[in-house]
Design goal:
Pfam families: Transglut_core. It comes from Bremerella cremea. InterPro entries: Bact_TGase-like, Papain-like_cys_pep_sf, Transglutaminase-like. Helix content is 43%, strand content 12%. The chain is elongated. The chain contains 23 helices and 19 strands. It folds into 4 domains: 1-152 and 166-186, no CATH class; 318-328 and 351-441, no CATH class; 446-603, Roll (C8orf32 fold); 612-735, no CATH class. The chain has 752 residues and is an alpha+beta fold. The strands form 5 sheets. Strands 7-8-10-13-9-3-17 form a 7-stranded antiparallel sheet, with no helix packed on it. The protein has a 4-stranded antiparallel sheet with strand order 1-5-6-2, with no helix packed on it.
């Protein structure tokens, strides 16, 4: 019951997840310390033992101290007051398990587990916590039945066989778990209600709030009235007007990458990235008239030098709630003239459709992937704070999105490049949007279906529309690989391993073709050079590819207090997408330091990944591991000798003031040394009798000093201070030099 309650509480405070490793480390440390204290203290009456009570109070107070340390170092990493109180009671509950032989302490652990399990179920809406609650209820019923059975077992007539019906109890437990799982499976996991939402002020009440609060009133962070902080409330009933100037999407990219260099001479090279839009290399690609839809690879370096550290404290453009890292696309570039990335002026994407599910409006985007090829569906919440754009930041393979209570189909459409957009000037501030996307695993992309699709879509460009140096490099990197995702991954991995990401590096204005210079000469540059080079390399191999730009939700910015990731100006990013049919585009991340969102792993996959990572780490660090293993073997082989040296030094140099403490310290060290040799002093046997039986003859002076220290608190010491030190050293040396610790029981048998 205690362990189930601890698991349920952890799931509740971690939003249905297992939480962080240090939280479980705290549980393990509390349990280990309590178990060691219970074993070596061996209190006869724990409820009256001050050491036991001090331990239980220490584990409670220790968590509050740890929370204050977390709050000072990472202000949003700790828990609210009720969370701190719950976790402190959890520590008390875990520590009480070590002293469960005392009935009153066992009852304390049981009642604490009941309270924490109730709080976990009432304060959460996660099915995993509900399962823990059901399991706890069944265990609780079993506990009550067992307690009652033990209480009446002595009242049966003599000769009556009485035992707990374990089979029936086990069957009832399994049946209860099965029925609970079936009920949750039928009703779904989204129909749970939060019974105590808003009950505690720091969890989202309507009077007091906290920066680490995890809930809100009604629609939570969507619709909360504010009076002081303009960034803390939703879009309704607001008394505060935002006075800060919102940057547009175009401004964000220019602020991050600096303004483009305007060349007086026109560029003549042009390469069309997608297969369906191929053009002659020496033809001029028409530029779009929409400002911000083209991007030059040649950038100025003035604004970056002028930026101060205060610029990095600007408010977030928007927030992402959900798993990260996450790539959010805003612009699609499918033409390249040698220097400028340019967006298309037309597209063939089907329109966005409004579909209501259970009265909830969803805007569906075409993503023609069958269920067998989709690993899972991922959902994220986007809260727009300080970004002025009509483009919807969309994850790869966007399936659908919604804004609560917005059910007008004309509110959304597709931009000229086929990217989803809102039909007003820009997305209103503090709008909360829910987006769902499909995740595809690497084995699926490496499978037969994807491989055959990629092979069918390959269309190698002719020599006139190709670039010889890039074509040769692409074939060199993939010459020994079959067509398909293996070649795409090879190009990606080659760039990630052999090229360096340098966001601040800039190409010279005299560079004729930036991508050639990046691939063959500098081998370092910003992310837009990695993306453009990858797209051209894949294009030379015949794959349909395009460069996209948007935002990267960095896991390093993840806020554990709110479970949200702020996205700043510095998080703009470029990457690549490839497709086999021009409809479903799969992301490719060639820039080192950036990662794609991977599908959730099953427990076996996690175990396999951990074992694989541990194996790789061991192989890469085999020299220090070998040295450590040799040292560990040596320590194990010489453990008793090393222990004798340490204990002898402790006996000689550690002082506790009075003669009585000196004698008792030596006696304690002698018992520890005997315990290492496998001879524990039996309960009820005096120390002097025990030490005389399991060692060579001890000096009478030490025996007398020990009896005085143990049994004569009012008498003066029979030896002087100098003699006490000498006698204790000689006694401990005699014990160490004994050939072996004799067992009194075996000695008695030999005499018989």
């Amino acid at each position: 019951m205690v362990l189930t309650s601890a698991l349920g509480l952890q799931l509740a405070i971690s939003h249905g997840e297992l939480g962080y490793w240090w939280q479980w480390l705290e549980v393990a440390l509390v349990g280990a310390v309590a178990w060691l204290c219970a074993r070596y203290m061996a209190p006869s009456d724990p409820i009256r033992d001050k050491r036991v009570m001090g331990l239980l109070l220490a584990v409670v107070a220790g968590h509050f101290v740890m929370e204050q340390v977390l709050y000072q170092t990472m202000p949003r990493a700790g828990q609210l007051f009720e969370g701190q109180m719950s976790l402190s009671l959890r520590n008390l509950m875990i520590a009480s398990l070590a002293f469960r032989a005392e009935k009153r302490i066992a009852n304390l652990a049981t009642l604490t587990s009941l309270a924490l399990m109730a709080v976990s179920v009432f304060m959460s809406v996660y099915w995993s916590v509900t399962i823990c609650g059901i399991v706890y209820a069944v265990l609780g019923v079993g506990y009550l039945v067992t307690s009652y059975w033990e209480r009446i077992s002595g009242r049966f007539p003599e000769g009556t066989k009485s035992e707990i019906p374990r089979g029936a109890v086990g069957l009832a437990f399994c049946l209860a778990v099965f029925l609970a799982a079936a009920a949750i499976g039928i009703a779904g996991t989204n129909h749970a209600t939060r019974a105590l939402a808003g009950f505690m002020p720091s969890s989202g009440g309507n009077q007091i709030s906290d920066s680490r609060s995890q809930g809100g009133v009604g629609d939570g962070d969507d619709l909360v009235q504010g009076t002081k902080d303009a960034m803390s409330f939703g879009p309704t009933e607001s008394e505060v007007f935002l006075e800060s100037k919102m940057p547009s999407l175009f401004d964000v990219f220019n602020d991050t990458y600096d303004a483009p260099i305007v060349k007086k001479t026109a560029r003549q090279k042009a390469v069309s990235l997608p297969r369906s839009e191929m053009e002659h290399r020496h033809s001029r690609v028409a530029t779009t008239k929409s400002k911000g839809n083209d991007f030059s690879l040649l950038r100025k370096n003035e604004a970056r030098r002028q930026k101060s550290l205060d610029d990095k404290k600007s408010p977030a453009l928007f927030y992402v709630k959900g798993r990260v890292p996450l790539h959010l696309r805003t612009t699609i570039y499918d033409h390249f003239d040698g220097v400028n990335l340019q967006a298309a002026e037309s597209h063939q994407e089907p329109p966005i459709k409004l579909i209501k599910e259970n009265g909830v409006p969803w805007y569906h985007v075409s993503c023609p992937l069958s269920d067998e090829h989709i690993h899972s569906t991922e959902e994220h919440l986007l809260k727009f704070i300080n970004l002025k754009t009509d483009r919807i930041p969309a994850p790869a393979r966007l399936a659908r999105f919604q804004i609560k209570d917005v059910d007008r189909e004309e509110m959304f459409g597709l931009a000229t490049d086929g990217h989803p957009r809102i039909t007003v000037d820009f997305i209103p501030q503090l709008t909360v949007m829910r987006v769902q996307s499909s995740l595809v695993s690497s084995p699926t992309l490496l499978g037969d279906y994807a491989t055959s699709k990629f092979r069918q879509s390959i269309s190698v460009p002719d020599h006139e529309a190709s670039i010889a140096s890039i074509r040769e490099l692409a074939h060199e990197w993939t010459s020994d690989l079959p067509p398909g995702w293996q070649q795409i991954a090879a190009v990606r991995d080659r760039l990630r391993s052999e090229y360096k990401s340098a966001p601040n590096s800039q190409l010279s204005e005299e560079v004729e073709f930036p991508v050639e210079s990046f691939l063959l000469e500098t081998k370092q540059g910003p992310d837009y050079l990695f993306a453009t080079a990858t797209s051209l390399l894949l294009r030379e191999l015949g794959y349909s590819s395009r460069v996209v730009s948007g935002f990267y939700a960095d896991p390093q910015n993840f806020d554990v207090g709110t479970w949200q990731t702020p996205v700043f100006k510095d998080n703009v990013h470029f990457w690549v997408e490839v497709s086999w049919d021009g409809k479903v585009w799969h992301p490719v991340e060639p820039t080192p330091g950036y990662e794609l969102l991977a599908p959730r792993l099953t427990p076996w996959q996690r175990l396999h990944a951990v074992c694989l990572a541990a194996g790789k780490w061991c192989v890469s660090n085999w020299i220090p591991l070998s040295i450590g293993a040799v040292l560990m073997v040596a320590v194990c082989a010489l453990f008793k000798r090393l222990a004798d040296v340490v204990l002898r030094l402790a006996n000689r140099y550690v002082r506790f003031g009075s003669e009585r403490n000196r004698v008792l310290w030596t006696a304690k060290l002698m018992q520890w040394r005997a315990r290492l040799q496998g001879r524990r002093r039996p309960q009820g046997q005096t120390f002097t009798k025990w030490i005389q039986e399991c060692s060579q003859p001890i000096s009478p002076e030490f025996i007398a000093a020990t009896n005085w220290a143990l049994y004569s608190p009012t008498l003066s010491c029979p030896l002087s201070h100098a003699e006490i030190g000498r006698v204790c050293d000689e006694a401990f040396t005699t014990l160490v030099h004994s050939p072996s610790l004799k067992n009194p029981a075996s000695s008695s048998k030999e005499l018989l």
